[in-house]
Each structure stands twice: as structure tokens, then as C-alpha cells.
Amino acid sequence: MYQITAKGARAPVETAWDALAWADPSPAGAVDAKEDGRGSWRLDAFAETEEEAEACVVIIEESAPELTARIEQVIEQDWVTLSLEGLPPVKAGPFIVAGSHALARQSPGKIAVLIEAGPAFGTGHHGTTLGCLLALDEVRRSRKVGKVLDLGTGSGVLAIAALKAGATSAIGTDIDLDSVRVANENARKNHVNGFTAMHVTGANTPRIRQGGPYDTVFANILMRPLIGLAPDIAALTAPGGTIILSGLLHHQAPPVRNAFASRGLDFQKRIREDGWSTLVFRKPD
User: Fold this and answer.
1) Which of 7, 25, 65, 271 is the most exposed place for a label (fewest CB within 10 A)?
2) 68 annotated as ligand-binding
């Protein structure tokens, strides 16, 4: 595997992120952008082959000439073992997300979610996951979490946290089969009931419709899919329900906000964490 890295100002890094994330097909298997210090941002992409890594460099430097990208070969590692050696716990309000090594040392009274590092997205260490957990904390303090729909569930961390915070049931969906398998395994490891992860594209499927309407809906994915899913998410949300959206760089939040507001949903707040935005909406009663 190869890691491609470029550092610079926020604007060119975000431009390059957009170009890589939306190339069809993209040579990058994963792309991330975050603040890397005062006034500095960092773009990281991962590719399976050297040829794909070089293609990433071309896209980065053509879309953002101010950036210089470098390629580094990454030695394949056992990510679960790596997590046991030192992945730090993540705290978001009352929630703590960590591997078994760290949870054993934590103080009581926290809502503990056991997630080991692995092939599915969502250990709690990403700004998008952190923002969603902070939004979930506000939901549980103001009303019952109720039925949950988690679109793009990844490791299942958000759905599992919601169940531990009092949700009555949770459906997680993902387009990646490995993520579905990992999410179901994580639910068993966390001893939560009422969770099902499904291999589904989109949100308008019979199984999802039959389980609704949902009191709390998570969609931690990407800007364009979020905009496209706005009508379905609005229809699947129960009156008075909360919608928590993430996977957004700061400059991507306004078009997503507009797409959901145009569906009659009330914007509640925006949470900013590590260069990423989480948007919270409420469906009117």
C-alpha cells in the first residue's frame, strides 16, 4: 500500500481532496484532509499500487498546483494489534470509544463503546465521528433516542453508541460488505440488542422503509450522496426526529444545509471538529 501526502493552505488542500474523492474512478482507496497546525492543512490519500499512487499525485498537483505531493510505501500491518499497542481512547461528552486495552483502564460512569481499529471506518478518532457523538449526546439529554437509522455505518460505532444511550433499535447500512460484517461483530462484542447492519446502497429500500420512521438518523458519508439522499432521509425521519449529518469539510456544509432545509427541516446547529463539520436538523412535529 502507498500513502500520498501533501501539505499546504486550507483552500488548495480542500480542492485536491474534492478532486481525488470525486474522480471516477478514483485511484485513491481513501482520502482524508485535516488541520496540521496553525495555518497549515494536510491531505492524506491511500492507494493499493504504485501506479495508482502516481495517478493520485497527478490529480493533486493538477487540481492544486500550489501543492507538492509525496509518495511513501506503507508496510502492511495488523491494525488490530496496532490498536492494542496504543490507540488512545476518544472521549465525546459521556461517550468513550476505545479498544479493550484502554476501556479496561477507564473510570466508571462513561458510556463505553468497544471498537478496535480494523478495516471499517469509525474508531471515533475522526472528526466526523466525534461530531456525531457530540450531537448524539445532545439528543439523549433532550429526548429519547428512539429508533435509529445509521446510513454509512462503517464500524457501527454511532449505532452502538445510540443503543447504549437508550435507543430502542438501530439499523445500520453500508455499501461495503466488510463494514457490514465488522459492524455486526462490534454489536455482539458490545452486548447490544436490536442492531442490524445491512449491505445497502441508498436509503429508499423496503427493509429500511418498513423499519421507519426513525427518531434519530445518522448519515456520516460524503457531500454529494448526502444531497442526493435528502428527500429519502426527510421522509424516513419521524416528526420531531433528529438528523445528524457529517463527512463534510467546512466548505461543503452550506450546500448540504440548503438541501435539507429545502425539505422543510429545521437547522439546529453546526459542530466543528478537526477540520470537519457535523450538521444537526430537526423534523417539525
Assistant:
1) 25
2) no
